[in-house]
Amino acid sequence: MKNDNDKWLESLRESLDGFEVEPRPGIWDSIERDAAAARRRPTLTVVWRAVAAAACLALVVGAYFLMSNPDNGNVAPRVSPVITKTETSATPASAGIVTPAELIADSHDHTPRPRAEAVMAMTDDAPLVSIDEEPVLVFMLFVQGGQSMLATTKDRSQRSLMVNSLGRKWELTFTSLVVFGGAFFASFPLFYSTSFGGAYWLWMLILFTFVVQAVSYKYRSKDGNVYGTDVYDIMLTINGIVAPVLLGVAVAMLFFGGEFTIAKNNILGPQAAAISQWSGLHGLEAILSLKNLSLGFTVLFLSRVLASLYFINNINDNYMRRKQKKELLINSVIFVPLFLIFISILLTSPGVKLHDDGTMVWEDYKYATNLIGMWWVLATLVIGVVSVLFGILKTLLTSDFNKGIWFSGIGTALVVLALFWTVGNSGTAYYPSLIDVNNSLTIHNSSSSEFTLKAMSIVSLLIPFVIAYIVYVWRALDKVKITRHEIENTSKDEKY
Q: Would you say residue 457 lies in a domain?
């Protein structure tokens, strides 16, 4: 038996003598990427620790500042008397103090408060509290735009390229949406209650589409997926089309208004325990407005334009680059007229003006007047539009240019900022009521107390650190462009 084994081993050695195996293509590139990633991990850890330390320091300093302010507990909310009335039971000693209960009184009584003139004097001089996450959110909608384009091809390998390219960034969009809502909750609690709590059917639809998106990325390529990738691709497409349109409709109500009233006695109503009262559709009626839909479809095709620019930048594939240039041309031809239509509607629409006596009236061409009267806002809008067009045209006309996403992305953020600056400033209501104009929301009748706004200002010091970290992670993820070979040789647990 031993001799037989020796003969078998000797025969095996002879047969394997000179035998060579050609490594599979791309194996060395894969090894180099893994080695590079391993070398980058310590640096990433150091950056994360630095960001965490800075955050802790800022919070400690902010807490000390707030706790050391002896007047914090007596700061009255920065609210106008537009939707309030004086309580008949108020004593002369308390007449000068505006309490939250008084702020949300009967909206149909506009009797000026003792402090009305002082509060109204703040309207034009107070700084506009901007929501920094809104421009980021609109820019990050390129993820939804890319998902909406999955239906443009039946090639599974192309879909995998697109999904895995977007899969590296989709969580940033979801996070931006959550932070956007949280920032509004802290800065403008009455708006949060009115919009998110009143128009809840609209926001529930938006939330549903994002839940569908999260599930799809999680399980699309995983073992045990009995439905196949096509089902999850359809779910991603639904999110890609519906979410931008509905978000555009929700944002459009900041300009064109909603069907709500705000009064303290609403909370006693039989339908809902809420300060704001909406029509029976609770926000769904906004979808039927052509003005709102003009912004909704503008946002949809803007997201598709940004998606094509992102794919050209992120995917290293000649066929995909040629295909996305065609998609970029088609979507740009649709997007530009839609944007011009929305801007025309906005500048010719009336806005709500807040008068010194606390009353509100509709004023023709209010947004156009604001834009002309604030040259820096107009300049920001023009620069943003030019930047978006430059990114598109440069990509279409130059064969090897792939940086268009950054020009158009920054331009998009500037345009969004300019549009938000147009409302709220110059005594303009940023959330008009279509039922009772005097129920419209302004910066001062819906913002938090001075104490809360100071706290938010201190917390906002962390934003540059967060943005810096996001930029660093983005660059690390995109250092190596996605290829077909990479997707084909990636395990199911590591790809979307």
A: yes
